[in-house]
Amino acid sequence: MKLVLKTSPRSVGNMGFLNGKPERFVINNRNRFYYSLGVRPKQVARCGQVHGKHVRAVSKIPAAGYFLKTDALITNKPGIFLTAVTADCFPVFFYASGKGAVGIAHAGWRGVVKKIVPETLHAMVKVYLLKTEDVRVAIGPGIRKCHFEVTREVLLKFKSSRAFIFRRGRKIFIDLPGIIRDQLRKAGVRHKNIVDSGECTCHNPRKYFSYRRDKSEEHPKGFGNMISVIGYKK
Ligand SMILES: [Zn+2]
């Protein structure tokens, strides 16, 4: 079984419905990206993404292609590919080599506070009878402590994560991937089984879209989103 694990670079186009409605050019961009990975669009499941903590186990692709009110997907069926759309939030990938199980979580600050990442891990371990120490996790590109400045209101949600809060002058920054890693370690994932792309979306305008960097009055939703894919080929 061959693992597919990839976040689309900006060069392959916008992967998000910025006005909320499906748009033909976005669907075309996604399909072209899937085909470049050797994946057919009908093999892909998406999550509705509401910044919640609901995890869905996928045994077959739904007719609509996606699951409402869901921020993480898991499967143990090779040939099913799971996706998440992001533009500063983190795509977090899970896989257990040899077991055919994979997962993906859409983790922005709200999802991190709600512990979507350990929720996804627990669901995978429970549903597919895995050992936590066999699960590998990859943290994709997202907005990092260099650019993730937060308001005092947001800071209040991170009272239990003091080690991941930084002040520079009057500004406050949070290290979300640091918290994700900490949550994973506390849930029993081995240090050596966590890899982090280290990439900041806000820092890489050539490679990634960034909501925080790109939004403006004229473009309130920024310029685009990336899509991340994980799954095993049969
Ligand atoms: Zn940055």
Strand content: 25-35%
Note the run of SSEs as H and E.
EHEEEEEEEHHEHEEHEHE
pLDDT averaged over residues: 95
Q: Shape, please?
A: globular
Total domains: 1
For the secondary structure, the number of strands is 13
* CATH topology title: CNF1/YfiH-like putative cysteine hydrolases
Structural class: alpha/beta
Strand order within the widest beta sheet = 3-5-8-7-9-12
Pick out the low-confidence regions: none
Can you say what the CATH homologous superfamily is? CNF1/YfiH-like putative cysteine hydrolases
| Distance linking N and C termini | 6 Å
Radius of gyration: 17 Å
Number of helices: 6
Task: State the helicity in percent bands.
Answer: 10-25%
Keywords: Hydrolase, Metal-binding, Transferase, Zinc
Organism: Candidatus Sungbacteria bacterium RIFCSPHIGHO2_01_FULL_47_32
InterPro entries: Cu_polyphenol_OxRdtase, Cu_polyphenol_OxRdtase_sf, Cytotoxic_necrot_fac-like_cat
Protein name: Purine nucleoside phosphorylase
Q: Could you describe the 3D structure shown?
A:
The protein has helices spanning 24-36, 109-113, 116-127, 152-155, 176-186, 211-214, and strands spanning 2-7, 44-47, 55-57, 66-67, 72-75, 81-86, 90-96, 101-107, 136-139, 165-168, 171-174, 194-196, 226-233. The chain starts with a strand and ends with a strand. The chain has a six-stranded mixed β-sheet. A five-stranded mixed β-sheet has the order 1-13-6-2-4, with no helix packed on it. It is globular. The chain contains six helices and 13 strands. The protein has one domain: CNF1/YfiH-like putative cysteine hydrolases. Helix content is 21%, strand content 26%. The mean pLDDT is 95. The chain has 234 residues and is α/β, with parallel strands linked by helices.
